[in-house]
Amino acid sequence: MAVNSQYTAALVGCGRIGYSLGLDAKREQPASHTMALLDNRRIRLVAGCDSDIGKLSVWHKAVPGAKSYQRSEDMYREVHPDIITVAVPEEFHKSEALAAIAARPKLVILEKPVALNSREAQDIKNASVEAGVPVMINHERRFAEDYKKAKACMAGIGCLQSIYAFLSSSLCLYDRKGESTGAFSLFHDGTHLVDAVMYFLGDPPSLGQSLLTGIYKDEKGSIRQLSAHWATDKCPDITVTMSGRARYFGFEIQLNGTEGRICIGNSYLKIYQRKDSPLYTGFFSLVSDKEAGKIEKTRYFSNMVQNAVDFLDGKAPLLSPIDTGIKDLLILEDIKSSLYR
After folding, report:
1. How many CA atoms lie within 13 A of 278 on its CB side?
2. Ranges assigned E (strand) in the chain
């Protein structure tokens, strides 16, 4: 396809991440697949699908020029898009991803996590390879300007001493009853935390087996808190702490080096570097570099869609391919299995 011509796209799943988060006035926009696709001048959104007729009707009013369907198989019989975005609940990731791949688009964009488990995720990858249809996973922080800047600044903080990553929410971390639907935070939100850690480490093949501490269960036996620890050649102290006991939502990663520190979380990026201490004569302290941490917009969703366009143009690789998403799932599955060792 000639550069500057348009790619067609179809959306499977017109719910929260598919559409309605794009109406949240507090979020940086675009904040949904629909809004991000519409925002890119190189893409024409031609169809949408959702089994919920109410959600589909609301979506169709917002995208009146597109066709709407309640079943993806009906959509694929009539529409042959270049890009298919799958934004359905985790329990339907495998079936809808396989259907999208079978429709032979040029690219499938799949919401995170890849699937309910690594076995299903591998089935999706195998189908992708066999059909020659690449799959990109929406681990949005890989595309965000603040995370890209943080990674670029890592060279300035010396050797990595430790990485501390934190996720706090009120959602249950893990309960065996949620296995069939993925209705627990360990995979649903934890995939973002683990993926960001892997991104900063340069995507190693594996972190190895985790050591768990701080496990907390509620009165029903559901896991509400844990910390997982690893040591690698790149960093001797990696800790991921997740809590489902908090009365707020928090997401933060600290990268501690021998020459500085980077702290990044929702809405902030702070970079500290070794300077002559303003507090102690003859010592060095970490001093905030306020200019280095300034980011006007993260463009997390816009950059994801633009990466899809650049990939189809042959100008860039996928920044979040399915392989990285599968590695994230394997790490999370190791944590899950360690809970009952």
Report:
1. 4
2. 7-12, 43-49, 67-69, 83-86, 107-111, 135-138, 160-168, 211-217, 223-230, 238-243, 250-257, 260-265, 268-276, 284-288
CA-CA-CA-CA torsion for 180, 184, 189, 194, nearest 10 degrees? -80
Kindly state the tokens that stand for 130: 């066999």
Q: What is the DSSP letter of 30?
A: P
C-alpha torsion sign, points 54, 98, 112, 3? negative
Cα–Cα distance measured from residue 337 to residue 341, given in angstroms and rounded to the nearest whole number: 7
Q: Are 88 and 181 in contact (CB under 8 A)?
A: no
Collapse the DSSP code of 170 into the 3-class scheme (helix H, G, I; strand E, B; otherwise coil) and give the result. Answer: coil
Q: Mark out the alpha helices in 17-168 (DSSP H runs).
A: 33-39, 53-62, 72-78, 93-102, 118-131, 145-152
- 34 close to 22: Cβ distance less than 8 angstroms: yes
- Tens-place pLDDT, residues 16-61: 999 999 999 999 999 999 999 999 999 999 999 999 999 999 999 9
> 271 pLDDT band (50/70/90 cuts)?
very high
Give the single-character DSSP code of 171. Answer: S
CA angle 64, 65, 70 (to 5 degrees): 70
Give residue-wise pLDDT tens across range 95-116.
Answer: 999 999 999 999 999 999 999 9
Whether the bond between 113 and the residue before it is cis, its omega within 30 degrees of 0, is yes
182: its two tokens: 């993925």
The answer to whether residues 10 and 85 touch, using CB atoms and an 8 Å cutoff, is yes
